[in-house]
Specification:
Elements lengths: L1 H7 L7 H10 L7 H15 L2 H10 L5 H27 L2 H5 L16 H15 L2 H13 L4 H21 L12
Helix pairs in contact: 1-4, 2-9, 3-4, 3-5, 3-7, 3-9, 5-7, 7-8, 7-9
Length: 181
């Protein structure tokens, strides 16, 4: 995680906790290194911070391409699903719930890694987007797939920290000097 560690050092002191958390959540826990990086990549795609995404892509270069492809797919699919299903949940009208979504979501059932790994990426992205319905659905799927509560918890922790890391990196313009000339 050298690239992320180097990038994290550029997060300003106002977000020092995020700087430290970014290194911690990617370095330990109940998930494998591949899972941590895959989840972090999906969340970095959602964060839209090019510096953070590039650092994570460099650290994840040792992984099979399936991890990056699933991270992209999870970010894109959840961007669509989280908006749609959050709307349905917020409105709460039976009329909307009875209408078919008619949204293509085949990739959910055809990940390149594993269903469990893809669901971990999806729950983290759904938590970032704040879609209660999707978070509950992915958590249910993960439990059925044999994931532990610790794994679900760690996936969401990674999502929270990666997303806040993207914000921390934007607190000061890139290249601005905080020290005296």
């Amino acid at each position: 995680m050298d690239h992320v560690k180097n990038l994290a050092s550029s997060i300003p002191d106002a977000a020092k906790d995020i700087r430290l958390n970014l290194q911690n959540v990617l370095g330990d826990g109940s998930l494998s290194e591949e899972q941590r990086l895959g989840i972090a990549l999906a969340c970095a795609y959602v964060s839209r911070n090019p510096r953070l995404l590039e650092a994570l892509l460099q650290d994840a270069a040792k992984l099979a391409p399936a991890w990056t492809e699933d991270a992209k797919a999870a970010a894109a699919l959840m961007a669509m699903n989280n908006v749609f299903y959050r709307f349905r949940h917020m409105i709460g009208k039976p009329a909307y719930s009875s209408m078919p979504a008619r949204l293509r979501m085949q990739r959910l059932s055809q990940p390149q890694t594993s269903k469990l790994d893809f669901e971990l990426m999806c729950i983290a992205v759904s938590a970032i987007h704040g879609c209660e319905m999707c978070v509950r659905s992915h958590e249910h799927s993960l439990m059925e797939l044999g994931a532990s509560e610790a794994q679900v918890f760690d996936a969401v922790r990674i999502g929270a920290v990666v997303y806040s890391g993207a914000i921390g990196l934007e607190l000061e313009p890139q290249g601005s000097a905080t020290e005296s000339p």
